[in-house]
Automatic annotation (TrEMBL):
The keyword Membrane applies. The chain crosses the membrane at residues 21-37, 43-63, 84-102, 108-125, 146-166, 172-189, 196-213, 233-252. Keywords: Membrane, Transmembrane, Transmembrane helix. This is Uncharacterized protein. It comes from Ferrimonas pelagia. Signal peptide: none annotated. It comes from the Bacteria.
Amino acid sequence: MTTYIVFLMLLVEGMRRTPRATFVFWILSLLTAPIWANNVEGWFRWAKTLSVLLPTALIVGTARLAQLYPNSPNKVLAYFRRDWVLWAFYGVLFLNIAEATLKDLVTGNYFNFVVGFLLCITIPFPRHKNGKRQYWLVSRDSNADLLFYSTAAWNFLYTTWNMAFVYGESPAFFASSFCILMAAELYPLIKKRPELYIIARVYTLAFHILARAMGDMFTPVMDSTNWYNENVLHWWGVINLALMIPFTIWYFKKFKQDGEPPFNLEGKPPIANELPQNQPARA
């Protein structure tokens, strides 16, 4: 598991630093779609596979490419420099949570279901009405990073909620899913840049989903079926909800007070009107 976590963090670092090659990789990954039918079963797994791999290849990749050429007259690149892209990122994250939340409801994981709903309503918009700060953006530098300015608390709550969901929905794959969630959580902490959480989450999840769609390479080495315990699942959901409720209250209290969602003191979302046209790349 440790090896897989380290590999995933190195993968994120590589894909951040090579946006052109990363774009090509994810576009080519879609050519493996005929193989998916042999390994993907059920409405949830198909929804998850398509809602992760298609946006990763077609929206994230193209949006990053567009920011590498900010003055290009190419109509496609110009289209992907528009604000709709940031709303698409927001929508994909919302959908990613909503899919799993619905599955929690269907499987009776009710406490975790409520947590998923509260996570959805506490995702910052790219920019709020009458707000000054930009909570989602693609940096205009040599990395063209997808940046998401939330809070470390939201990132953590999303991680533990998602772990509990996978533990109940697919126990056999819990160990491998734990790895991708921990890699996404640890990477921005190591880099001391919490705004990198979503780009880390995008690429670790997309790689994992692609690998599972290509075949079962995880259960032979990380089968966690025997880890499942119904009481653990129940109390995990309870604990998640006990943490999520005070966060939600604090979130909306701060929102009402400041007119915008709360954010980390380190890595503050930039003032939208002060965003530089060109930025030096950051590690």
